[in-house]
Please model this.
Amino acid sequence: EVQLVESGGGLVQPGGSLRLSCATSGFTFSSYTMYWVRQAPGKELEWVSTINNGGISTYYADSVKGRFTISRDNAKNMLYLQLNSLKSEDTAMYYCTKPEGTGGYRDWPRGQGTQVTVSS
Model:
């Protein structure tokens, strides 16, 4: 069974930083491109970032490019997202996810999420 457990969120002031982690199990982590997505209150789920299985290629939404960094540790089955220069609009529940089935990322499995709140 696929398990994804996000952690590391919290309340941070604008301009601050957080490091999110995602512990994974139940699948061959090193074989999968992995993703971070987020959902702000009252908004749809939004793609944030992607990292290929080897950790070489990374992609970011324009809204976070230059501020967030995705990484992974295949030996530990862990996915990370470093959030810097946080803005109020980054406030959301953050989830890690992996491709499954033929649908898009909205249909893929996610954990319980970790809440990021950016506020002064």
Q: What stands out?
A: The mean pLDDT is 97. The radius of gyration is 13 Å.
